[in-house]
Amino acid sequence: MIRNTIAALFAVALTSAACLAQASQPAIVEDFKPSTLNQPGQEYPQVNSQGYARFRIKAPLADSVRVSLGLGGRGGTILTKGEDGFWTGTTAGPMDEGFHYYNVTIDGGKFNDPGAKNYYGSVRWESGIEIPAHDQDFYALKDVPHGNVQQILFPSKSTGTPRRAFVYTPPGYEKEKSKKYPVLYLQHGWGEDETAWSNQGHANLILDNLIAEGKTKPFLIVMTYGMTNEVKFGKIREFKIDPFQTVLVDELIPYVDANFRTLTNRDNRAMAGLSMGGMETKMITLNKPDVFGYYGLLSGGVYAPEDLNGKAKPKLVFISCGSKERPDGVKKSATDLKAAGYNAVSYVSENTAHEFLTWRRSLHELAPLLFK
């Protein structure tokens, strides 16, 4: 009798919890629109005003279809098959604002969504979806003077191969033939490549808008492959910086200085990176403090005063992350560095995690502080 009573109470508790969960989840507003990152003419995936995403995949012979969102495709939204052979499903809750990678698993095989554009992440080309951000104006394409992003191929004796980089030149660079500019070397994260900061990050649009508003000094941005993907995820500690440091410092920087109008001293050269690119930035700036005068770690660790002690003093140390990451560590690092006499700035992106809106916002905060 007691056992039956306990079982009944347990069942009631589970039912009550489920009802409360359903009650706490707001009703989904049916104002879905195609994602801004869809292939031309494609209606799905769609996003609504609350930040939910809805997917529709044609797979008439499939037994199961799931959409996995985020770097590496964590989690999953189960799609339901309709009589027309299309599988449809909506995320369980609103997504964070900004850009997200995702892929589709059909009967155990991993594929990209044919309705969405692809972006290089997770060491492969992945589908992308954009949840409109309330502050997206700072990286919007506006009617302002625009710079150029051009591909360059530079020789690398250390690797025995030609290598690629993308260079952003600010508005007016082509016309002002005698003016020289500072340079920011900006690194991507693990699983990504040199296309990430301009494609996913909108670095060029962020700079165009800041320059048009008179909020930042014009400078070049150089984005190259960080040789990060040879190390598997979860074994980042095994990564050796030496090969990339040689490519960057001994090969790419001299090539850029020889082929672009740059200011070539450390006070006019910065290095920053997101995630693993931040780890690369920390390693290289500590190894080569005479090369870079400005440091930026974007969700990429922190500096301690003892890291910098005895080295050429940086003009600026910028450290950032999302509020859903480890903001206390970022704030403490800046506080400790300031107490030790360094020009340190921390920034925390509200309501974001380890994702591109965090890094877009971080670049937007960092750029006006550079080359003062």
Quick gist of this model?
This protein has 372 residues and is of the alpha+beta class.
Description of the molecule:
This is Alpha/beta hydrolase-fold protein. The protein contains eight helices and 19 strands. The chain has helices spanning 2-24, 196-199, 203-212, 242-259, 276-287, 305-308, 327-339, 356-366, and strands at 33-34, 46-47, 53-58, 65-69, 77-78, 80-81, 86-90, 98-106, 109-111, 118-121, 124-131, 148-156, 161-169, 183-187, 220-224, 269-274, 294-298, 316-322, 344-349. The longest helix is centred in the first third of the chain and has 23 residues, at 2-24. It has two domains: 33-132, Sandwich (Immunoglobulin-like), CATH 2.60.40.10; 137-369, Alpha/Beta hydrolase fold, catalytic domain (Rossmann fold). The protein is globular and about 65 Å long. The strands form three sheets. It has an eight-stranded mixed beta sheet with strand order 12-13-15-14-16-17-18-19, with helices on both faces. Strands 4, 5, 8, 9, 10 and 11 form a six-stranded antiparallel beta sheet that branches. The termini are far apart. The chain has 372 residues and is an alpha+beta fold.
The oligomeric state of the chains shown is: single chain
The whole-angstrom Rg is 23 Å
Please state the structural category: alpha+beta
Looking at the structure, the CATH topology of the largest domain is: Rossmann fold
Determine the number of helices (DSSP H or I, runs of at least 4 residues): 8
The total of beta strands comes to 19
Please indicate the percent range of residues in DSSP E strands (runs of 2 or more).
25-35%
**N-end to C-end Cα span:** 78 Å
CATH superfamily name of the largest domain?
Answer: Alpha/Beta hydrolase fold, catalytic domain
Average the pLDDT over all residues and give the rounded result.
92
Total count of domains: 2
Keywords: Hydrolase, Signal
Protein name: Alpha/beta hydrolase-fold protein
Signal peptide: 1-23
GO molecular function: hydrolase activity
